[in-house]
Amino acid sequence: MHCGLCLPHCPTYGWHGVEGDSPRGRLTLMQGLAQGRLEPESERLRSHLEGCLGCRSCEVVCPARVPFGALMDRAREILTEHPATPSRAKGWRQTLQHQALLHPSLRSLGGLAARTGARLGVDRLLPRGGWERSLAHTRDSLVPAPRLHATASPDTADALLFTGCMDRFFTGPDLEAALAVLDALGVRVAIPQDQVCCGALDQHTGHRAAAQALRARNGEVFGTREVPVIALDSGCEATLREYPEGTLGARSQSLTRFLAQRLDADPQGDIWEDTPIRIALHRPCTQRNVTREAREPAAMLERLPGVSLAPVSGAPNCCGAGGTAMLTQPAMADGLGSETLKALTGAAPDVIVSPNVGCSVHLRALASQHAGQPEILSPARFLARRLKNGPRGDAGR
């Protein structure tokens, strides 16, 4: 399918204006790669395929429903199997990354190192790019992981909480806030032990076997009991819902979708603050194009006392975060992110709410360059702050 209806919706094509950076161009390159007519070692080929942000906006508008995301994952597998410049250091880094996705203790060590480096300003001593960009861009989002306290066992819980792999870096307070909100609503929550990364990082970088191993572990840990699995990050939710085996995919949902269903049954308006507040709701690619939940979060948040939504217009299809693209493609990522931030702040909201951790990290870094920008929160932390009695611990800070 090469009709080109998707071209106006592709952020990388809009940025570069090059056919090879459009869905149509990339499909042609994938076809040549699969048929052996193009060499996987080609740097030009790799730059076009690896430059895709994975927003999947093209899938939504494609009249033939071409599964572009799955095709891109497969193309990157081929690139991974034929590295342009084999590097022992790169292989070592990939092994360490995968082990960190499996083991919380390694993530704890990595989070401690990142926070210490950010506090000491180590990025200013590093050469530009790579580690310097990583530390500088994530500094404003790095947080220590709190101790999470489940309120039920997996056998008796009303819901299971998926913690993901960013808990030791960015999402610990989000998880704590979610537990506070769910507890206030009388929901019994369990946190299954030994759960691991959803597999998105490996899946979208061409490491299929590693992603499959993570999926298998999560499938075993979360079992088959018909109880909702709540994911706070829209990227994790999107990946979980596309698990090809078991029941985990069908049971996975966002916090806002779970709460919307809960509030339909029992509004419990007396637990919420009613102080007026205007929020700008960021709708990330994974939510619009994969889970297709673009409307539900807004409807759920507007039902809360005192909450109103500020209009958002003119935002590009992707904020540029694109997993690790905010680190590996800084010029484009910052350009797209700045346009997104401009759209979100155009109506002067009190706070920005984003359900994607990568987008939040990226937008927060860009917002820190300008004074007077509204705070960027996850839905969980925003909701915890709206509780009348306040959240437990520091979930609302």
Describe the fold and architecture.
Helix 2 packs across helix 5 (68-81), helix 6 packs across helix 7 and helix 9 (167-184) packs across helix 20. Among the domains are: 7-81, no CATH class; 273-385, Rossmann fold (3-Layer(aba) Sandwich). The protein is globular and about 65 Å long. The longest helix is centred in the middle third of the chain and has 18 residues, at 167-184. It has 397 residues and is of the alpha/beta class. Strand 7 (351-353), helix 19 (357-367) and strand 8 form a beta-alpha-beta unit. The protein has helices at 11-16, 23-34, 43-50, 57-61, 68-81, 88-102, 104-120, 131-138, 167-184, 200-203, 208-222, 234-241, 248-251, 255-265, 285-290, 296-302, 325-328, 330-345, 357-367, 379-385; strands spanning 159-162, 189-190, 229-231, 252-254, 277-281, 307-309, 351-353, 375-377. The strands form 2 sheets. Strands 2-1-3-4 form a 4-stranded parallel sheet. The protein contains 20 helices and 8 strands. 49% of the residues lie in helices and 7% in strands.
Quick structural overview:
The protein contains 20 helices and eight strands.
Task: List its traits.
single chain; 397 residues; alpha/beta; Rossmann fold; 4-stranded parallel sheet; 20 helices; 8 strands; globular
Strand and helix layout:
Elements: H1 11-16, H2 23-34, H3 43-50, H4 57-61, H5 68-81, H6 88-102, H7 104-120, H8 131-138, E1 159-162, H9 167-184, E2 189-190, H10 200-203, H11 208-222, E3 229-231, H12 234-241, H13 248-251, E4 252-254, H14 255-265, E5 277-281, H15 285-290, H16 296-302, E6 307-309, H17 325-328, H18 330-345, E7 351-353, H19 357-367, E8 375-377, H20 379-385
Parallel strand pairs: 1-2, 1-3, 3-4, 5-6, 5-7, 7-8
Helix pairs in contact: 2-5, 6-7, 9-20, 14-16, 18-19
